[in-house]
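INFO  loader      accepted 1 record
INFO  loader      residues=374
INFO  predictor   begin
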Amino acid sequence: MKVPFVNLRLQHEDIMDKIHLAIDQVFEEDPYVLGPAVARFEKAAAKMLGAPHVVGVNSGTDALLLSLKALGIGPGDEVVLPTFTFMSVAEVIVRLGARPVFVDVDPLTYNMAIDSVTQAVTPKTRAIVAVHMFGYGCDMAQLLQLANAHGIFLIEDVAQAMGARIGNKYLGTMGIAGCFSFYPTKNLGAVGDAGMVVTHNDGVADRLRQLRDHGRAPDGSFPEIGFNSRLDPLQAAILKIKLDELEESIADRVENARFYDSLLAETDLVLPEFFDRGEHTYNYYTIQAEERDALRNFLTEREIGTAVYYPRPLHLEPSMSYLGYKEGDFPVAELLCSRVLSLPVFPGMKRKEVEEVALSIHEFLAMRAAQATQ
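INFO  predictor   done
INFO  writer      dumping tokens
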């Protein structure tokens, strides 16, 4: 049975009529840049998250970039971030002239290790970017305590964790800014690039709205250089519809993940951890396997889609070589990059598809065990 890593068409089948109506409304309202559709989505997202300000931007990368810029991060500043994440987090820090300071991660949650963060903070540290990995929240209580003790900003990267909570608080609402990506494969996915920033700070919200529109002030003047980073109304209209479906789609992901847990429980694979302090939304269901590449090749031959997030830690990327890090600096992240494999867990995935993936994994492990005894 062919099982794709993600099935985006399936996510839209039942809501296509609503999507067409929403798109028609954008054309009828006429403003094709910002306008009512963006305002409606921002209002709906703010209501769901319980936050006073939501600012739509054109991507999750720009959500990070504009947040750092709005907080005054620039040359001479250091920003702490995990080395086990996507390049965009480091990229925006460099673009502003600041210095990325990498830290290691927890081997089970994949989130930044608190001890490593504590050791990385210096008098030059202006911000910490807490990346909520694979749909599961960082230890925000300890990170907030650390940030407050040192008078530094805590920014949340919620690209993979829209809809996840810690207690009764949504991820993205606890730091000074919560940065969201609506890349099509995310929990809440657009049909192209889109993003948003959430904040409780009035001043930060005002700066974000100004920065996303070329630095334009309410009076029409341009007191600073900004960016062209406005959320597209067509994307906003579609996102508002899909926001209503978010809880159901996350429930699908969790159900699929729990089924994997039961089917793979007796293997020597490391399965995703689930702790009481937060809810896992399983944007990715990521396992660890000693023979990751061989397993992935085996599944590919069976036409089962997988992905590797991430094949190389950021401190070892060529573009980051000027920072002076070397192999062995962050051993947990380096080991994870050779072991992690994300399995299909998309909303609407059928139980027989989950069973097919798990059965194929069991066949691979049995084959390897037989070879080892020969």
